[in-house]
TrEMBL record:
GO cellular component: plasma membrane
Protein name: Trk system potassium uptake protein TrkA
RCK N-terminal domain boundaries: 2-123, 232-348
Keywords: Ion transport, NAD, Potassium, Potassium transport, Transport
InterPro entries reported for this sequence: K_uptake_TrkA, NAD(P)-bd_dom_sf, RCK_C, RCK_C_sf, RCK_N, Trk_Ktr_HKT_K-transport
GO molecular function, one term: potassium ion transmembrane transporter activity
RCK C-terminal domain residues: 143-227, 369-449
PROSITE patterns with a match to the protein in the record: RCK_C, RCK_N
TM ranges: none
Species in which this protein is naturally found: marine metagenome
């Protein structure tokens, strides 16, 4: 029986979520107040669409909520999401996931909490983007960074420059010639297409390679790839919006942080609350202003205004002036692959971060395995324990006999982290981190469960 999902709000988050889930066996209904958004969905995907207010009881009563497995309230308006969640809860929806922008609801002293509305899980897109950006700041020269096993294992994305010592060499050769830098190349993005690389894959210029290693070895992996990390001291954030403020509040005690905000009232208002951050009221695209602030001495520039055209232009401008690390935030997810190639160091989207978070929740529930989905990479990360009676153990297979569509990135054995090589053995009760495409998750289960 298909899992029934209702998605209220099909903006960037809702649309990309439907696009990901519609590839699987889910019975999906979307609700949006704008007819053109519903048409966009139904013209490209096999889902049911209802035009109307997702917070309206009359609209929700068109569905038998007692049969709904997941109700996702994903509009841009917190109040609509809360009302829709409460109505669906009272009507019998089984699990409710809600998108909220206002982080006050998560405070310990909050008078109104998501639990009072029957909400099982809250997604805060801006907080998700803040977390992703902070990871990149703390691991410079990377285009992406994901953490596993409570931060003990990292997957770091590195763009392979033409000067990289890896260019022209294959994966197997690089692993053998760097025995003291244990790593696994789990994923390659080449010409906007991602794939799990076979061992004979040759590194090429402009590849983005995703390397898995122990957290303590990531700096050495970056150096091996020709992109050594550097120390960040001075940070400039363009835009005092939600993401900019969250970043400044979190970073101001460890770095010299400046926020550039063009709106005078906004700059004045938040200058009083961010006491350890210098807020400058100026146009971040003004070259004279950037020169007066010695932009070339900035270690990290984060373009986080609510106008992505401004973000893109500002990022290119400061990169030209020699800023070491430029992080660009975008909201239109269709731009994601294109802007990766324009010369900035890293691209982050609060919408993609939110989609990945929701996909992880739903897929982990359905697979009975912890599954982290990375929609921007078109890949999943699965964490599972090897069962004694599994096919791998019964058939006495070796790590070389594992299908190339699966990458065993790390093994946790008796609390020890192991980055596997060709001679590594896998035992019952080992905890594996497997990187693969969504369609191959069943192969992982058959092999190790």
């Amino acid at each position: 029986m298909d899992i029934k999902i209702v998605i209220i709000g099909v903006g960037e988050v809702g649309f990309n979520l439907v696009k990901a889930l519609s590839k699987e066996k889910f019975d999906i209904t979307v609700i949006d107040i704008k007819e053109e958004k519903c048409q966009r969905i139904t013209n490209t995907m096999d889902v049911r669409a209802i035009v109307g207010d997702g917070a309206s009881q009359r609209i929700l009563q068109q569905l038998d909520m007692t049969n709904i497995d997941y109700l996702l309230a994903l509009t841009r308006i917190d109040e609509v999401n809360l009302v829709a969640a409460k109505s669906a809860y009272e009507m019998g929806a089984k699990k409710i996931i809600c998108r909220l922008r206002n982080t006050e609801y998560s405070h310990e002293s909050a008078i109104i909490t998501p639990e009072q509305f029957g909400i099982d899980y809250v997604v805060y897109p801006e907080k998700a983007a803040q977390r992703d950006i902070e990871n990149l700041i703390r691991q410079t020269s990377a285009v992406d960074l994901e953490e596993f096993k409570n931060g003990q294992i990292n997957m770091v994305g590195i763009k392979i420059a033409h000067s990289s010592p890896l260019v022209g060499r294959n994966i197997k050769n690089v692993e053998l010639s760097n025995p003291y830098i244990p790593h696994k190349l789990a994923l390659v993005i080449r010409e906007n297409e991602s794939f799990i690389p076979p061992k004979e894959t040759i590194y090429k210029k402009d590849d983005i390679g995703y390397f898995i290693g122990k957290a303590k070895d990531i700096n050495e992996i970056q150096r091996m790839a020709g992109k050594p990390a550097f120390k960040v001291k001075n940070i400039m954030i363009l835009g005092a919006g939600k993401i900019g403020r969250l970043l400044a509040k979190s970073l101001q005690s460890d770095y010299n942080v400046r926020i550039v905000e063009q709106n005078f009232e906004k700059a004045k208002k938040f200058g009083k609350t961010l006491t350890d951050t210098l807020i400058l009221q100026a146009n971040g695209l003004d070259i004279d202003f950037l020169n007066s602030e010695n932009i070339q001495e900035t270690d990290c520039f984060i373009a986080a205004t609510e106008n992505e055209q401004t973000n893109i232009l500002a990022s290119l401008l400061v990169k030209h002036y020699g800023v070491k690390q430029v992080i660009l935030h975008i909201t239109t997810t269709n731009y994601f692959k294109a802007v990766r190639r324009i010369g900035v160091d890293a691209v982050v989207s609060k919408n993609i971060s939110a989609v990945n978070e929701v996909l992880k929740l739903i897929r982990s529930d359905q697979q009975d395995l912890p599954v982290s989905s990375f929609e921007d990479l078109n890949v999943d990360a699965i964490e599972l324990s090897v069962v004694q009676e599994c096919r791998y153990i019964r058939k006495k297979l070796t790590i070389d006999q594992i299908p190339e569509e699966l990458c065993i990135g790390a093994i946790c054995r008796n609390n020890e982290m192991i980055i596997p090589n060709n001679h590594t053995e896998i035992y019952a009760e080992d905890e594996l981190l497997v990187i693969t495409k969504e369609e191959n998750i069943s192969i992982v289960e058959k092999l190790f469960q």
